[in-house]
Amino acid sequence: MKKNPDGQITVFLMADAVLAAKTNQRTPDGYYNVERMLKRVLTGKGDVLLCGTCMDAPG
Fold first, then answer.
1. Are the CB atoms for 50 and 18 separated by under 8 Å?
2. Which of 2, 41, 52, 59 is the 20 to 30 Å CA partner of 13?
3. Of all helices (H) and strands (E), which one includes residue 36?
4. 33: which residues sit within 8 A by CB, 6+ positions away?
């Protein structure tokens, strides 16, 4: 996005990634925090899409 401000970023989450993006999760040291990474995408005017079936699966 820095090189192409008119570009568009869309992230599509499915399977376990849907649960990993849940807010306020505590991640152990050395592990990626998906919530934090997605906030950067959303702040940069990107889109985050979730698989509906994957959201329904865990209840």
1. yes
2. 2
3. helix 34-43
4. 25, 27
Report phi then psi at 11, rounded to 5.
-110, 130
Instruction: Give the pair of three-digit tokens for residue 26.
Output: 């505590």
CA distances from 34 to 3, 4, 7, 11, 37 (A): 24, 24, 22, 12, 5
pLDDT in tens, 11-25: 999 988 888 888 888
- The tokens describing 55, both together, are 């959201």
Q: Tokens standing for 24? A: 């306020």
The pTM of the whole model exceeds 0.90: no
